[in-house]
Specification:
CATH superfamily of the largest domain: Histidine kinase-like ATPase, C-terminal domain
CATH topology of the largest domain: Heat Shock Protein 90
Strand content: 15-25%
CATH class of the largest domain: Alpha Beta
Radius of gyration: 47 Å
Number of strands: 10
Strand order of the largest sheet: 5-7-8-10-9
Largest sheet: 5 strands, mixed
Number of domains: 3
Order of helices and strands: HEEEHHHHEHEEHEEHEE
Helix content: 55-70%
CATH architecture of the largest domain: 2-Layer Sandwich
Distance between the termini: 50 Å
Amino acid sequence: MQKWGWAMKSFDWLLAVALLCTVSCFAGCNLYLSSLFSRDGSREYRVEADRAAADVEEYGWEHVDLSSYPSIVGIYPMEEEGGDFFRADRDYIIREIGGRLYRIEYVSDASAAKRKGQTALGANLILGLIAALVFGVLFFVRFKVLKPFEQLSEVPYALARGNLSVPLREGKNRFFGKFVWGLDLLRENLEQKKQRELALQKEKKTLVLSISHDIKTPLSAIKLYAKALSRGLYPGREREIGDSIDGKADEIENFVSEIIRASHEDILSLPVNMGECFLSEVLGEIEAYYGDKLSLVKTGLSIGDYSDCLLRGDRDRLVEVVQNLMENAMKYGDGRWIDISLAREEDCCLIAVRNSGCSVAQEELAHIFDSFWRGANAEKVKGSGLGLYICRKLMEKMDGGIFAEVRDGEMCVTVVVRKA
C-alpha cells in the first residue's frame, strides 16, 4: 500500500508541475503579446501618417479618406498667418507636403489596443482549452485509474495471507470490471479449495480414528485366541479357533482395504459445466497461446485441416485438457515438432496430439493416466504425475475418453469428445 501511496503522491507532484507550467505559459504568452503590441502601437501611426501624406500630395488633403487610417484622426494644413497651428488637444506630427506644412493628428493606441485585446483573448482561449484537456486527462487518470487500482493493490497480499472472506466490489465506472471480476473469482476458488481441504483433512482424520478403533476388536480377539492355543486351553477345538482367527483376519484385511481405497480417492475437485462449444473455439485458443510460445523454442506446430463442428462438454475444460497434452509434448518430446490432427468417428470428434521423440516405454502406457504416476523418462523433468490423470477424469465427466499410443517413435495422445 505504501508503494501505491507513493505513486499517488508522485502523480500529485506531476499535477503540480503541470499547473505551474500552465501558469507560466499563460503569463509568458500575455507578456509577449503585450510587448509585441506595445512596439507595434508605437510605429503604426507613423506608417499611417506617411501613407496619408502621400495621399495628400496626390489627391489633396480635402479628398483623403481617414477611415482607411485607424490611427489618424485629422489632417490640417497650416494657414498663412500660422495662428494656432501648433496647438492641438491630440498628439500630432508635422509633415511638409508640396511646400506646405500639415498637422497630422493621431491616436497611437487605438487600433493596437483593439487588436491586442482580440489576439490576447484568442490566445488565452486556445491555451485554456489545451490546459482543460490536459488536466481533464490527468484527473481522469488519477481518479478513474490510479485511485481504483490503489484500492485493489492490497488484494493480492490479502489473498497471499489467506484472507479470503472479503468479497471485491466492482466500481460503477466498470473500468476495472473484468479485472475485479477475475480477482473475485480467484478469491472464491481459493476459498472453496480451502474449505475442501479442511473438510478432507477432517474426513481422513475421522476415518483413521474410526478404523483404528474398529481394528482393535478383531486384533484383540486374535491375540486372545493365539494365547489360548499356545496354552492348550481349547483341546480338540483347534479347527474352530483357526476359523475364528481367519474370520478376524478377514475383518482386518477389509479395514486395510478401506484405508487403501480412501488413500486413492480423488483428492481433486474438478467441476464440469456441461454445455456446447465449437471445435474452432478450442483449437483457436490453443493456436493463439502456443503459436508464439513454441516459435520461441524453435518447435514446429501444425494443426491439420478440419471442418468445424459443435462439441458437447465444458469449453474451458476441453481447452485445459488439450493444454495439458501440449505441455507434456513440450516436456517429454525432442522439441522438433508437435502436430494436432482431427478426425471423426460416428458421433465423436477425435483430437490427437502427436510429438516427435517419444521416450515412454510401451509397457508404461497402461499406467500413464494413473494419479501420481511418473514414468522412467520423467526423472529429470519437474512434475506431479497428475496431468494426464486430470485429463482422464475430466473427459470421463464430459462423457468422453482419452487414450495414448506409441507409433514409430512418436507419442500420440487422443482425446475423444462427443459431438452435440
